[in-house]
Design brief:
Length: 383
């Protein structure tokens, strides 16, 4: 079982020999509140500037002879960074990231480093390219791709598109959680994501795509697109690009990805060439959804009313932190029901039909009067 916030906070206070009064003066924060954090009576403040300032303070005041203890607790198997900003980032993730995700990422890093030391003729790498195979190889290449961007000081624009099967992501829940966590870290650094979704997937896979991306959609830092014309089901392609730093490219025939090649590139010219390919493809696409952002929830009321008017034809499915509203004529509306309140709206007929088919098959779907009552309650979300 992971340590509590209070235990982690106390560990850093003791490691840096910091008193409540000292930290209070440095952060201009109430000493009695700091005492309650240490006792577990109050939670760690999760907003800037406290989060950044407390992480930076601990990083600056960690003495050389205590760094081994910090490594053992915060980042096992790694080297404590000399750069104070990098150390502050580690401390921030230790205090605020979920232990299971942090441990998974550390485990993945150690596992990949161990594989690098093996004499394995099944993969090849150089300073500018690396070859990976199958779904496990795609997970490793995606992890490396995201780590390259996280380790870079500058935010990045991520360009993503794939119509290959998503088994590499969905078949490993732990990796999917780590993948989402790494993307959120990138967004916190100021990165943005532009993604071209494939809408030719079956109902369950379509909903999985929406569900996995939902927290990122609600951040307001993601633009989503789709190609409107029907494509054949023979040749599939993946492009993940962050120009000029790195790119992943792969392809497969009729979804056969078992031994397919995933190529991770770090050559700037090659990455820019793939960026040009992506830009040309996106010029043929259309926006997939509209976003109702926090602070503009007055725009949400008419969208909800449209589903109320649909009557018995409207389906409402409460899911974690959100409600999915779907009607084949009205569209799809996904409303975040926890702060910060927000919503996304989709009209494309194929994705509406897929999500309607999925929602209709779920046991806890609301219909008729129950759906109308739930929709009415959503109208009164705080604006």
């Amino acid at each position: 079982m992971g340590k509590s916030d209070a235990e982690k906070f106390n560990f850093l206070m003791e490691l840096t020999n910091t008193s409540n009064a000292t930290l209070s003066r440095v952060l201009s924060f109430d000493a009695s509140y700091i005492s309650r954090i240490r006792s577990g009576k109050r939670s760690l403040p999760s907003k800037h500037p406290f989060t950044a300032n407390v992480s930076s303070y601990f990083a600056r005041n960690l003495k050389e002879n205590y760094k081994a203890a910090a490594v053992s607790e915060i980042c096992p198997g790694q080297t404590w960074p000399e750069d104070t900003d990098e150390a502050a980032t580690l401390i921030y993730e230790y205090l605020y990231a979920k232990d299971d995700i942090k441990s998974l990422i550390n485990h993945m890093a150690a596992s990949i480093a161990q594989n690098d030391n093996k004499d394995d003729t099944a993969s090849f790498s150089s300073s500018e390219r690396a070859f990976y195979y199958g779904n496990q190889g795609k997970r490793e290449s995606v992890y490396r791709f995201l780590k390259i961007l996280i380790d870079n000081d500058e935010p990045a624009d991520l360009l993503l598109c794939s119509d290959e099967p998503m088994d590499w992501l969905y078949e490993d829940d732990a990796f999917a959680a780590a993948w989402s966590h790494l993307l959120i870290l990138l967004l916190k650094k100021g990165s943005r994501i532009r993604i071209i979704h494939s809408i030719s997937r079956d109902a369950n896979e379509m909903w999985e795509a929406v569900r996995k991306w939902m927290p990122l959609y609600f951040s307001g830092c993601v633009e989503s697109w789709y190609y409107p014309k029907i494509r054949d089901d023979v040749y599939h392609r993946t492009l993940f690009i962050a120009s000029p730093y790195a790119a992943i490219v792969s392809s497969s025939v009729q979804g056969q990805t078992g031994e397919s090649l995933n190529l991770l590139l770090q050559n700037a010219d090659a990455v820019r060439a793939l960026e040009n390919e992506y830009t040309a493809y996106r010029s043929l696409c259309r926006p997939l959804m509209d976003m109702v952002r926090p602070g503009s929830l007055k725009d949400l009321k008419p969208l909800i009313n449209a589903f109320v008017k649909a009557g018995d034809d409207a389906l409402v499915l409460p899911v974690k932190e959100a409600s999915v509203c779907v009607n084949e004529n009205t569209g799809v509306l996904v409303i975040r029901t926890e702060e910060p309140f927000a919503a996304i709206s989709m009209k494309e007929p194929r994705i509406v039909a897929a999500i309607h088919s999925w929602a209709a098959s779920e046991q806890n779907v609301l219909r008729g009067t129950a759906a109308a009552d739930h929709l009415t309650s959503l109208i009164h979300l705080p604006s």
